[in-house]
Each structure stands twice: as structure tokens, then as C-alpha cells.
Write a structure and sequence with these properties.
Layout lengths: L1 H34 L3 H20 L6 H23 L4 H16 L22 H4 L4 H15 L5 H5 L1 H9 L3 H16 L3 H12 L8 H13 L1 H25 L1 H10 L16 H8 L3 H22 L5 H18 L9 H12 L18
Helix pairs in contact: 1-2, 2-3, 3-8, 6-8, 6-9, 9-10, 9-11, 9-16, 9-17, 10-11, 10-12, 11-12, 11-16, 12-13, 14-15, 15-16, 16-17
């Protein structure tokens, strides 16, 4: 009797928890639809909010939980993605990737020679332009690489994909998705001792966006602890040669364009400011505190140094520890950057989910009626 009661209490709590999660996601999505001035975000908010609300209703029963998750994914990703692509509605990143692909084919460089407005700047590394060269809308490829990389890393989870911080960029066009997906896969491969493959995957990620570069030393520390010197050297050689091959030829084809778009613009060194301005601590410091930009950059530097020192003093010995360390470091960085966006939090969220997924398995009690009885 006691075992039955305990099982039903835990079971009821799980059902309530999932129901409340979907209800909370519905509020977030509908709230975004009300406050955002971006058409793609408003469309996503209405469609996803409806899907989340239906999922919250369905999640009240054990047998309907898979259906609830399927409805959440359909409402938050599939329907708004198909609708947005069909109508040509997408956020600025999609147009930037498409334009960089056309420039790459036409000039050999993905960067505009004389950028005059925000849309002319391409703040990504040259590898990102290949998503604009591939046929069809870049969102299919950006989201596809993300999903495939997560699946290869063992992190394909419906609830993660349906999370608003993940579902929104999948639907409207988020360039951070393939980067963080490859980072997760690279960390997993490094933890498995596959140093060459880890270097290749992380080198590709590093050729897409600067935000992937913190993963390189974290994975190196992990490989060094688990495998030693020779595999570490192999990892470094493969990672750096891959990243260099993906960046340097195109940067050298137009050094001034590369500097203006990929370095000066993200750092706020151009006359045209980046539109990244979510009210996170670093941005609030930069805007409302005298000398706040310097303070935010100083805090950002201190945080990076502390994470770097931790890799030397206490290097991660497992992929789980490496993912957690990287999630912490990027979480600090994304909140302290003067020019930042809520969308950047997909990095610590996804890497944190990877660390949680790789935790030590716990025994989950089965329903009392299924337990074997002994005399």
C-alpha cells in the first residue's frame, strides 16, 4: 500500500510539472507576440503559444504525454517554420546568410566591400556563408545541422527542441543553432577519446562563429586529461587546421571587409551599432551606468580568465564536466556582453542540457504492480 501511494504521488507530480512547463511556455510565446515589433517573432508567438497551450491540456494524462510533446514541437517549430519559409518571412540573420552566400560565389568573399546599413554587415566567420550557398532556405540547413549534431551527441530530446529558446531560432532563422550543436558533439567526441574527430567537428564550428572558440580549450583540457599528450597534439592540429582552412582564405581575399564585419562590428567599433540589445546585465551596465561598457568588458575578461585558470587548476575529466564548464563560461559571457541578445542563451541552455543528460543514471522506481514479488 505504501509503495503504491508513493508511486502515485511521484507520478502525479511529474504530470503536474510537465503541464505547468507547457503552460509557462505558452505564456512566454504569447507574451513575445504582444511585445515584439518583429513580424517573424509575432507569428511564432501566436502559433507556438497555441501549440503550447494545447500541449498543457494534453499533458494531464500519462497516455497523452507523447501526444502533448508532439503537439508542442509541431506548434513551436514545424508550423511556424513552414509558414515563415512559404511566406518569405524571416529575421535579419536569414537575409544576411543568404547575401553572404551570394557574395561568396560572386567575389570570393562573403563580406560587403562598403557596408552602409546594418543589413550590409556579416558578423559571422566565413564558414557561415556556406549555409547561404546551399539550395533552399538557409533555415532548413541551420536547423538540420543542429538536430543531426544533437542526435549524434545523444541529446535528441523533444522537450529541448520545443523549449522557446530553441524553437524560436529554429523557426525564424538562428545562426547559433549549428554552432552549439557542433560544440555539443565535439565535447562528446572528446570525452570518448576521439581526438581527431573532436578537432574536426569543433574546427568546423570555429569556422562558423566566434562563439564556438571557447569550446576549443575546454575540449583540449578534456582530451589531455583522458588521453595524454599525443592525442592532445592530434586534436590541436586537426582543430586549428580545419578552422584555419574555413576562415583564412576568405579573410585574406578581403581583409578590410573581414575586419569591418566580423571584428569591428560585433565589438561596436563601427559607426553603425549592432542591434543586439537585450536587457541583460552587460547591456544594462553599458547603457545606464557611467563607464558601464568598460565595467562590463572588465567583468567579461575576469570571467574568461577565471574559466581559463580553472581549466589549468582543475581540468574537466569527463564530457559532462566539460559541458558544464563550457555552459557556465558561456552563460557568464552572454549575460555580461554589452551587445547581447536573449537568443544567445541557447548556448548555456543546450550545453547545460548535455551535462544533465550525461549525469549518473538514477534508478527510477517502476509502478508497484510491475515489480517482481519474492516469497
Amino acid at each position: 500500500m505504501t509503495k503504491n501511494l508513493e508511486w502515485y504521488v511521484r507520478h502525479a507530480r511529474r504530470l503536474r510539472h510537465e503541464r505547468y512547463v507547457w503552460a509557462g511556455c505558452a505564456l512566454v510565446a504569447l507574451g513575445l507576440a504582444l511585445v515584439s515589433d518583429l513580424g517573424p517573432h509575432r507569428l511564432w508567438g501566436v502559433v507556438a503559444g497555441t501549440g503550447y497551450a494545447v500541449a498543457a491540456v494534453l499533458a494531464s494524462g500519462e497516455r497523452s504525454r507523447p501526444a502533448a510533446r508532439a503537439v508542442a514541437v509541431a506548434g513551436a517549430i514545424v508550423v511556424p517554420l513552414v509558414s515563415s519559409v512559404a511566406s518569405g518571412l524571416g529575421q535579419l540573420e536569414v537575409a544576411v546568410v543568404e547575401r553572404s552566400g551570394r557574395l561568396l560565389l560572386a567575389t570570393g568573399s562573403p563580406y560587403a566591400a562598403d557596408p552602409a546599413v546594418v543589413a550590409d554587415f556579416n558578423p559571422y566567420l566565413p564558414g557561415m556563408a556556406f549555409f547561404g550557398v546551399l539550395p533552399g532556405d538557409p533555415r532548413w540547413w541551420l536547423g538540420g545541422v543542429f538536430v543531426v549534431a544533437l542526435a549524434a551527441a545523444g541529446l535528441y530530446r523533444t522537450r529541448l527542441l520545443a523549449c522557446p529558446l530553441v524553437a524560436l531560432p529554429v523557426a525564424v532563422g538562428g545562426t547559433d543553432l549549428p554552432v552549439v550543436g557542433l560544440m555539443c558533439l565535439g565535447i562528446v567526441l572528446a570525452g570518448q577519446g576521439r581526438s581527431g574527430r573532436a578537432g574536426l567537428v569543433l574546427g568546423v564550428a570555429a569556422a562558423l562563429k566566434w562563439t564556438a572558440w571557447p569550446a576549443l580549450p575546454v575540449a583540449l583540457a578534456l582530451v589531455a586529461v583522458r588521453r595524454g599528450g599525443l592525442p592532445s597534439a592530434r586534436y590541436v592540429a586537426v582543430a586549428l587546421s580545419t578552422a584555419t582552412a574555413g576562415v583564412m582564405p576568405f579573410a585574406l581575399a578581403d581583409p578590410s571587409g573581414f575586419y569591418r564585419s566580423a571584428i569591428a562590428f560585433p565589438l561596436g567599433l563601427t559607426d553603425i551599432a549592432s542591434p543586439a540589445a537585450s536587457p541583460l546585465p552587460g547591456h544594462l551596465l553599458a547603457v545606464y551606468v557611467p563607464g558601464g561598457r568598460v565595467i562590463a568588458l572588465a567583468l567579461l575578461t575576469v570571467g574568461a580568465l577565471l574559466i581559463g585558470v580553472s581549466l589549468l587548476v582543475r581540468p574537466p575529466g569527463t564530457a559532462r564536466a566539460a559541458a558544464a564548464r563550457l555552459a557556465l563560461g558561456l552563460g557568464l559571457a552572454m549575460t555580461l556582453m554589452p551587445s547581447t541578445r536573449f537568443g544567445y542563451l541557447v548556448y548555456p541552455l543546450t550545453l547545460g542540457a548535455l551535462a544533465y543528460r550525461m549525469r549518473q543514471p538514477r534508478n527510477t522506481p517502476a509502478h508497484p504492480s510491475t515489480e517482481a514479488t519474492t516469497a
